[in-house]
């Protein structure tokens, strides 16, 4: 079975790379982008199943990036990545089908929690 | 009556004086008739002088606190709820009540600024910025831990991919063990998680809340207050709070109550800051003093009493006076007793509780915060 592909859109290098390495280690295909613009470019040329999108991005911010992704690639599952405890799903994002369960808060003390979340959504690593 | 409460003023001079203040002020006689109203009061309520104050109050009766020298909330006929402070005033031979009003939504925004002072220089924005590098540390260290766990399936697979056989893997595992690599990685992980815990506590303290009242474990809240107090820059640098001997007497298990946890945390922090300053003050006079603070939680049938007992300097007259006039700190920009005034505003106004101060000659000094287990939500802003 072909592994699901996870796109990580995160402007912090250490967070992006360590998360990417983790998912690769789990057996997923991984793409990384440092900005919303770069992430949308990757989506044009690659099949992506899940996009993990940081909310505080320079350039197009995370919320706008998510709106673009859902508009252009509605089948891509979105997980919101944020370091803000105050963050709540806005009404715009809720209209796109996102809920509080789709939010991952930084820092992640146990990375296996995020892979379990992805697996529970039906996105599997290479068998 | 303290000398400071006794004024001899010409009524016209008094009117001129109170006209300068920004909030509505009324001078009431012993029959609760309005004898004078300052300009903001006259602008808001027409032709009020000579009328009973009750005619301005929305509802049938004056609240009980209007009969006392106290602070409370007062709903008026203009549709606004005000924080009211009543204090006696002596002009010549006559005794009046001075009623000062403040829009309940105008005092509240001033409190978070003080709250941030208590937390120290670490603002919420800075705390968020710490989260990013911390995430990098915590995520990377988890990867290291996985990579160094040679017997785990992912590590085995990766080692096989680069040509390590069983013997090679055994040697790598022996090296990892010999250099205690996993032990050191665990140290980094634990330190990162502790930092993350501290940061989360700070962030939760500074975050804006939407549900003011919730069931809260008072013991946990007080432990958080001590945690934040130890981080506070003033407490650390000015008062050396970390070297205070602290005893904590509380019943076993949780002590739950309905409260606004964020503001109550703020109140307890203010009390700790006040007590730390008093302990420091006495130690300046007696350098060999062992500074002691005991915190007691005593749940009653309908109230919970939180006492802070300390062997620091006694309360000063100016602090006690301002404590009884909590709005003075806003109107007069005074400093003495500010932590107590802020604490009292939160306890009395938001939680319908009370704050009991020690007498100057009490040894040790004991401050008690008495909170109803389920305060009414009425009369509060938000």
Kindly describe this structure.
The complex is a heterodimer of chains A (127) and B (382). Chain A has 127 residues and is an alpha/beta fold. Chain A is built from five helices and five strands; from the N terminus they run βαβαβαβαβα. Chain A has helices spanning 13-26, 36-45, 62-72, 91-95, 111-120; strands at residues 5-9, 29-33, 50-54, 77-82, 103-105. In chain A, strands 2-1-3-4-5 form a five-stranded parallel beta sheet, with helices on both faces. In chain A, helix 2 (36-45) packs parallel to helix 3 (62-72). The model of chain A has no long low-confidence stretch (mean pLDDT 92). In chain B, helix 11 runs antiparallel to helix 14 (338-350). With 382 residues, chain B is of the alpha+beta class. Chain B is 45% helix and 20% strand. Chain B starts with 5 loop residues before the first strand and ends in a 10-residue tail after the last strand. The A-B interface holds A 12-15, 18-19, 21-22, 25-26, 83-86, 106-111 and B 128, 131-140, 142-143, 146, 154, 158, 192-193, 196, 200, 203-204, 207-208.
Strand composition percent of chain A = 15-25%
Please state the average pLDDT score of chain B. 78
Calculate Rg of chain A over CA atoms: 13 Å
Query: Strand count, sense and closure of the main sheet of chain A?
Result: 5 strands, parallel
Counting helices, strands and paired strands, the structural category of chain A is alpha/beta
What is the first-to-last residue Cα distance of chain B?
Answer: 37 Å
Radius of gyration based on Cα positions of chain B: 28 Å
Residue stretches of chain A low in confidence (pLDDT < 50, at least 5 long) are none
Average pLDDT metric of chain A: 92
Globally, the shape of chain B reads: elongated
Oligomeric composition of the shown chains: heterodimer
């Amino acid at each position: 079975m072909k592994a699901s592909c996870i796109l990580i859109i995160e402007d912090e290098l250490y967070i992006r790379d360590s998360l990417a390495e983790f998912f690769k280690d789990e057996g997923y295909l991984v793409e990384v982008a440092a900005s919303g613009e770069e992430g949308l470019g990757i989506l044009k040329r690659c099949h992506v199943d899940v996009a993990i999108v940081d909310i505080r991005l320079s350039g197009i911010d995370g919320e706008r990036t998510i709106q673009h992704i859902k508009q252009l690639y509605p089948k891509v599952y979105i997980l919101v990545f944020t370091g803000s405890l105050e963050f709540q799903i806005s009404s715009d994002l809720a209209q796109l089908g996102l809920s509080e369960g789709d939010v991952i808060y930084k820092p992640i003390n146990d990375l296996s929690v995020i892979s379990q979340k992805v697996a529970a959504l039906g996105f599997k690593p290479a068998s | 009556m303290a000398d400071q409460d006794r004024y001899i003023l010409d009524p016209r001079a008094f009117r001129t004086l109170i006209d300068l203040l920004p909030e509505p002020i009324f001078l009431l006689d012993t029959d609760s008739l309005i004898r004078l109203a300052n300009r903001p009061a006259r602008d808001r309520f027409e032709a009020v002088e000579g009328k009973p104050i009750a005619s301005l109050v929305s509802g049938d009766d004056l609240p009980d606190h209007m009969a006392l020298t106290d602070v409370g909330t007062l709903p008026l006929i203009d549709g606004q709820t005000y924080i009211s402070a009543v204090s006696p005033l002596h002009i010549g031979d006559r005794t009046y009540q001075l009623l000062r009003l403040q829009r309940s939504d105008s005092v509240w925004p001033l409190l978070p600024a003080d709250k941030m002072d208590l937390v120290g220089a670490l603002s919420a924005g800075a705390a968020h910025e710490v989260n990013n590098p911390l995430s990098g540390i915590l995520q990377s260290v988890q990867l290291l831990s996985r990579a160094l766990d040679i017997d785990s399936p992912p590590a085995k697979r990766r080692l096989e991919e680069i040509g390590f056989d069983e013997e090679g893997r055994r040697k790598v595992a022996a090296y990892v063990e010999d250099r205690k690599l996993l032990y050191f990685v665990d140290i980094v992980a634990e330190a990162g998680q502790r930092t993350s815990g501290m940061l989360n506590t700070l962030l939760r303290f500074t975050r804006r809340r939407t549900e003011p009242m919730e069931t809260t474990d008072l013991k946990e809240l007080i432990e958080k207050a001590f945690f934040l107090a130890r981080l506070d820059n003033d407490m650390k640098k000015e008062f050396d709070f970390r070297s205070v001997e602290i005893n904590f007497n509380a019943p076993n298990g949780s002590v739950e109550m309905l409260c606004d946890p964020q503001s109550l945390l703020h109140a307890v922090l203010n009390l700790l800051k006040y007590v730390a300053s008093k302990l420091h003050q006495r130690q300046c006079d007696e350098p060999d003093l062992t500074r002691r603070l005991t915190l007691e939680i005593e749940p009653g049938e309908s109230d919970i009493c939180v006492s802070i007992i300390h062997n620091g300097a006694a309360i000063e007259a100016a602090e006690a006076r301002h404590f009884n006039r909590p709005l003075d700190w806003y109107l007069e920009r005074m400093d003495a007793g500010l932590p107590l005034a802020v604490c009292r505003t939160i306890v009395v106004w938001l939680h319908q509780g009370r704050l009991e101060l020690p007498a100057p000659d009490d040894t040790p000094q004991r401050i008690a915060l008495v909170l109803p287990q389920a305060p009414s939500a009425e009369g509060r802003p938000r």
